Amino acid sequence: MSLLEVTDLRVSFPTSDGVVQAVRGVSFGIDAGQTLGIVGESGSGKTVLTQTLLGLTAGGQVSGQAVFDGINLIGLSHEALRKIRGAQIAVIFQDPLTSLHPLYRVGWQITEMIRAHDQSVSKAQAEERAVALLHRVGIPQPRHRLRDYPHQFSGGMRQRAMIAMALSLEPKLIIADEPTTALDATVQAQILDLLLRLQRDSGTALILITHDLGVVADIAVAVMVMYAGKTAEMASKHAIFYRPHHPYTKGLLESIPRSSAARDRLRPITGQPPSLIRLPAGCPFHPRCTYVMDRCLSEEPPLRAVAGDGDHRSSCWLPTSAAGVSDEAEELRRQTVAAGRTGAAAAVAEAIAESPEAEGSVIA
Ligand SMILES: Nc1ncnc2c1ncn2[C@@H]1O[C@H](COP(=O)(O)OP(=O)(O)O)[C@@H](O)[C@H]1O
Ligand code: SF4
Ligand SMILES: [Mg+2]
Fold first, then answer.
1. What is the reported pTM?
2. Average pLDDT of 309-319?
């Protein structure tokens, strides 16, 4: 049985401009000790999805199920969720200062967290644990650094301290939400390495959220690509990288910088993500999709199994066998598009081809 099984989760926010449909029916599972990467551009619903599991989406209307270790988290009382947060599911955010209080010493914050969840632990015991944790995440002179305030740590060190806090209660699941986005490339690689090593050592399950598909290349076992609050594609990491089906996934792959020299040749995804208040009809990706066909403008594609791999699913009307980057797959797509683009889709495709971003600029 999965450690966490999310089924048809939906989250919307009523606002004065209309209803923001942030998460629109997402399902996935993660087993104990497994790593899942959730990837998508900014605004695709990644944070709302995971914050909802922890009861942290204030003002959102939520439906669906999220069964963690046999308990449905959706609709659980604040008190029950507070007990699960930290002790069973820990979160690491992009900005450690959202979790580390600036006015308290790092060591005090870790020891208080340990003692809040287990009152039988003495102050001295909690402090010893904090020293061991800081040591484990690679903070030099941990006993000394316990007395520092968060601002005395560098960005990378603060992220290490956050990871120490996340590990302190030995959770079954860690959710890392863009944990390295604010860090420079070298520190980013060190922190990802650390997360991966700790996750392997402790057998904790890990959900790694990122806008950069390149980040999951070294870390995730399974990948879910999100677009406009839905699952665009879901598969093993290998299938996502070598047999992508959804044009959005292909676009993300083509926008990964493989080296700084390759940056110039990157192909960006044309256009912007849609408004989640006024979603386009049909496939939400159609205003940006170079394969757009007539039916894409009016019929929203369901998540379907991709041919040849039971765990690989994609929400796209292209043939289920049109996966991968081979010439054959591309030819199959080309033929399907030629037959399926007779009316209005031709004008959409033309507009995409003529948009200024279609010429070479790089996605940030
Ligand atoms: N409390 C809220 N009220 C209204 N809209 C929200 C709220 N929280 C998030 N959103 C909207 O939900 C969408 C998804 O946001 P988010 O999950 O943060 O995206 P991501 O993490 O993928 O960048 C965005 O359009 C965001 O503006
Ligand atoms: S359904 Fe159509 S518009 Fe959507 S991704 Fe597939 S080909 Fe593109
Ligand atoms: Mg986010």
1. 0.93
2. 94
